[in-house]
Specification:
Elements (H helix, E strand, L loop, with lengths): L5 H49 L13 H31 L5 H5 L1 E5 L2 E5 L14
Antiparallel strand pairs: 1-2
Amino acid sequence: MFDLSVTKLLVLAVIALVVFGPHELPKIAQQAGRALRDLRRIAEGAKADLREGLGPEFQDFDFEDLNPRRFVRKHLLDDMEDTTQALFDEFKDTSNAVMGGTSATTTAASVTMTGTQRTATLPDGEDPPFDIEAT
């Protein structure tokens, strides 16, 4: 979250030692720890109140899903993979129907699936499909 490495923490500790001095630093560290514990307690209480207010249908709600990166990955990219797979299946079915029920992978088009990337190559002389919405 803050990307603090060991060297950065040591630099911060040296700066704190110089600014506050060796006599005040333990007191300030204790106050900072206490404030952090209180903040965590308040946040957990707020989460519990929110879960209670949402009702039993949201008991398994994960607050990490509100993170924008996770939200986009979960709600948009997963749907995109499902849509891409559905379009690929539709292409395969359509090419089978056009070729009279023969296998599209052996006669009409060579289709390769590698992970989420799908490519299709047409044989020589065959026109690619026309998409009226592409222009």
